[in-house]
Write a structure and sequence with these properties.
This protein folds into two domains: 94 residues, K homology (KH) domain (GMP Synthetase, Chain A, domain 3), CATH 3.30.300.20; 30 residues. Helix content is 55%, strand content 17%. The longest helix is centred in the last third of the chain and has 28 residues. It is elongated and about 90 Å long. It holds the Pfam family RBFA. InterPro entries: KH_dom-like_a/b, RbfA, RbfA_dom_sf. One of its GO terms (molecular function) is ribosomal small subunit binding.
């Protein structure tokens, strides 16, 4: 269990270092509005997967992916200096589908709300199938 705690701390530190380096050190104009969402590190600390989201169009996403790929060496050296471990993990960037999922989820919620409003409107004008009071009352 101690190893998983260490990988979690290393992943958090890599997330902080990469995010700050993207703000201050990487000067690539192709780099869009990037948010580092998650970092996952292997148990042996040899490899780190960095997940990011980009706010913008598909062209901006592909340009940002190219900018991150070209800045991987610089970011890896920054991570190596900050971590101080014997080996610096290799960094691989993956676009996180979190933004798209949230957008799709919002669309689905809007559709459900619209459907609920239609059902409520139908319910207001509905009449019972049989008598108005189907229960037998004793006289």
């Amino acid at each position: 269990m101690g190893n998983s705690h260490r990988t979690g701390r290393v992943a958090d530190r890599i997330k902080e270092v990469v995010a700050s380096a993207l703000e201050s050190k990487v000067k690539d104009p192709r780099l869009g509005f990037v948010t580092i969402t998650d970092v996952r590190v292997t148990g042996d600390l040899q490899s780190a997967s960095v997940f990011y989201t980009v706010f913008g169009s598909d062209e901006e996403r592909s340009a940002t992916a190219a900018a991150l790929k070209s800045a991987t060496g610089l970011l890896r050296s920054e991570v190596g200096h900050a971590l101080g471990t014997r080996l610096t993990p290799t960094i691989t960037f993956f676009e996180d589908a979190l933004g798209e999922s949230a957008s799709n989820f919002e669309t689905l919620l809007d559709e459900v709300k619209r459907h609920d409003a239609e059902v409520a409107k139908i319910r207001e004008s509905a009449k019972p199938a049989g008598e108005a009071d189907p229960y037998k009352h004793q006289r």
